[in-house]
């Protein structure tokens, strides 16, 4: 599954849904990164907006992941393990934080849309 708010490249369009020939109008750095990546189209290629044809909020996406995962009301909301033992005994400590982890996972998933072993 790819969940992306790429329609933000259109800024605040006059009508919804957005279509590929709308003027680009990104207003913040996040939106501008999407415009920048979109400009890498190869000559002779066209842009296509793919999706369900309706907007989905982040909250709706989270709620659906909670439903799919079977998370129930009352499950621990915050739990994490200490890495002290691994650091002391193995000399291991994470080099990157959640931002870099998400970035790298996104990059891998984008470069491997069919997973590890599946073919297109």
From TrEMBL:
Q: Report if keyword Ubl conjugation is assigned.
A: no
Entry keyword set: Isomerase, NAD
Essential cofactor(s): NAD(+)
Q: Which SUPFAM superfamilies match?
A: NAD(P)-binding Rossmann-fold domains
Give the main EC class: isomerase
Q: Which GO biological process annotations does it have? A: monosaccharide metabolic process
Q: Is the keyword rRNA processing assigned to this protein?
A: no
Query: What reaction does this catalyse?
Result: UDP-alpha-D-glucose = UDP-alpha-D-galactose
Q: What is this protein called?
A: UDP-glucose 4-epimerase
